[in-house]
Design a protein that fits this description.
- The chain has 849 residues and is α+β, with helices and mostly antiparallel strands.
- The chain folds into 6 domains: 201 residues, GAF domain (Beta-Lactamase, 2-Layer Sandwich), CATH 3.30.450; 120 residues, PAS domain (Beta-Lactamase), CATH 3.30.450; 105 residues, PAS domain (Beta-Lactamase), CATH 3.30.450; 116 residues, PAS domain (Beta-Lactamase); 92 residues, Helix Hairpins, CATH 1.10.287; 158 residues, Heat Shock Protein 90 (2-Layer Sandwich), CATH 3.30.565.10.
- 44% of the residues lie in helices and 24% in strands.
- The chain is built from 26 helices and 29 strands.
- The strands form 6 sheets. Strands 1, 2, 3, 4, 5, 6 and 7 form a 7-stranded antiparallel beta sheet that branches.
- Helix 3 runs antiparallel to helix 4 and helix 6 runs antiparallel to helix 12.
- It is elongated.
Amino acid sequence: MSAKPQEDFPLGESIPQGAAPLESILCTEELRQRPSRPPDYERENRALVALVSALADSPRTIFETLAKTILDITESDSAGLSLLTKDGKTPDVGGERFYWPAIAGMWNPHVGGGTPRNFGPCGDVLDQNRTLLFKHFERRYPYLLPVAPAAEECLLVPFYVAGKAVGTIWAITHSDRHKFDAEDDRLMASLGKFASSAYQALAHIEDLKIQVAEREKAETALREFAKSLEAKVHRLVDANVIGIVIFNLEGAITEANEAFLQMVQYSREDLVTGRVRWTDLTPAEWGDRDQLALAELRATGLFQTHEKEYFRKDGSRAPVLLGGALFEKGGSEGVAFVLDLSEQKQAVETLRRVEQQARSIVESALDAVIAMDADGIITDWNKEAEEIFGWTRLEALGRRMSETIIPMRYRSAHETGLRHFFQTGEGPVLNKRIEISALRRNGEEFPVELSITPLKFGETWVFSGFLRDISDRLRSEERLRRSELNLRRMTETIPEMLWSAAPDGAVDYCNARVLEYTGLAQNDIADAGWMRTVHPDDARNTERAWAHSVRTGDPFQAEFRSLRGSDGMYRWCVARAVPLRGFDGFILKWYGTIVDFHDRRQAQEALRNTQAELAHVNRVMTMGELAASIAHEVNQPLASIIASGDSCTAWLANAPPNLERARAAANRVIQAATQASEIVQRIRALFKKTTASTTSVNVNAVIEDTISLLRHEAQRHNISLLIELDASVPSVRADRVQLQQVILNLVMNAIESTAAGVDPERRRLVIQSALSNPGELLVAVKDTGPGIDAQQAERLFAPFFTTKLQGIGMGLAISRSIIEAHGGRLWAEKNEPHGAVFQFVLPTRVQGE
């Protein structure tokens, strides 16, 4: 981007040898990934108001205002426009070079320079028709090397006029102090669109001025035509420069040129047949104006130019400027000159809408917007200003600014600053946001945030001020500061390890307890430094769990071994964190804790081992109590073996031996031996001390196997044993031996309770299985014993609580711990009308898991 047009890169020259490829200097995709600051709509509104104000001047003012606005709002070092042109001053999409009509910032001395269309950053933007971010673009375009200072980054956005890309707007940084982000892209595109609209509106206004000038020429021509001969009139009619008609006072149009006929959409055939009459073309509301024109014609021979409307053939209306005269004073025939005002009216309406939109922006602004002229008199005052200061708009207009909103002690400085600006063009508060005190109508002083923008209309200065009442904000900030101070004091003194992280997961704070525990400094543990304290074997899972929470917003929890700084020992810890969300649902902060549960983990492990030992002891004791029943169960198949063996021997001793019956007896021996073996295996499994092993278990089969060991015990006490098993219950995930131990304990307790002092006539025991609730399998053991006291129901499950003379009080406690370890519940209730019910539920296993 050279400083002068003659220094442009030659248009016909090809890409220089050794020039860097375009992809090497583009970093547009990085722009989308950079952290983006939140939109500052207040600042954007001021920029738009500045562009609206430029409408009153010229295209050059619009471009200069746009360049200054981009420089300010993107916090860049240089900003400006590059526009295609053929004549060096007018934007033209067919131009072969770019020129710079306006530059703000450090490259301002290069105004008027430009770059070639076919080889340059601006041309690349138009070729791709999108925003591009360049880094050190002189590596590709060597003609930019002499331009100083060099560009670090350049953000270019297409600039459109009438829907066509005719150039770019751009912002440049000359150092790495600031990097552009997506908000800069959005702001530049928004400002570019608004500036384009303003430029086009201004162009319409210029056209309107030209058309008004043409109208004045037409009026002059009208007076000249009135004096000319009829032949000259006809030649003028045929020229079709403006609409010309020959009319009579009776309402007829006897002749008209094509310009007029096109204006009202009638054909020459309509004219010849007499269907085109000026009285019919005129809407009723214009009748009085026509009567005034007729009176002028009769009195003076001509009528003054005026605006009115004509009906078109399709019923729509055409606004026109009309003037005319009679060929002869006192005659009835004359000529009228008609100028179509449709385009001028549209331009005026466009300008009105732009002004209305600008006013709407000011009135809807969240800030008080106040305008002041060069004499310090208030010229504008929006609704927010009425709310903040207590003066209505009508009351404020015409008052001195210093006497209306500025406290007495600052008024002199205000007047001095105004004079200083007119002398130097500078001011300490211009185009800056500062905090000062302001004055309400009731005399109350309050803090405001103020920004003043000077605007020049011709030779007249206007100052636009944006003020925001920050009383509530300052009070909130003070409350927040005190709250944060109290929170910091609390977190530093609380005897727990606390930490926090940014929304992206970077740890930004750990309290003193964390630092004492790890032996690290705050800077060492921040961001991802805390991972250095995690045991290498646990680091990957911990990092993965934290990344998942940061990505999804789910609460974080991870168990890992952490290095304790005092002794260099890895100890088990659990870290938890939850997100704090704003009103919009986005995460503002993560807050978490770290708890050392190493000692508790070891105690739990010891407790599990102790419980396993107690469970084994409980099974052994129970099997000891069942010794007689076990012996009976084993004796039955043994007796069958002996009897079948004797039969086999006898059949073999026959002469001849009866082999068929001997074979049958031998098979009975095998069956009985197998039965005895299975009984012994089940008993060994209960006696065996094993670790928990979870498999798919058929609960009904476990109940039947367990009852087979207890059936004789029930018969010995004359107890009726009833099994009601629901065949539809699914399998569960459980340890078969532990589940059998629970059922064994519950049934043995029920047998002992029912046998103790209960009439043999009502000694009854029921074992049931069923699906109680969706996803839960229920097992119930009901007896008809003496029952349980409601207050005693929970105490039954307490360790070492027993109602038996020989018991140790661990059976039910162990049974409950086994069921809860399987995700279930075990409880006791009163059985109606007699006895007790012990029941437990287990979560069912979904088929296909």
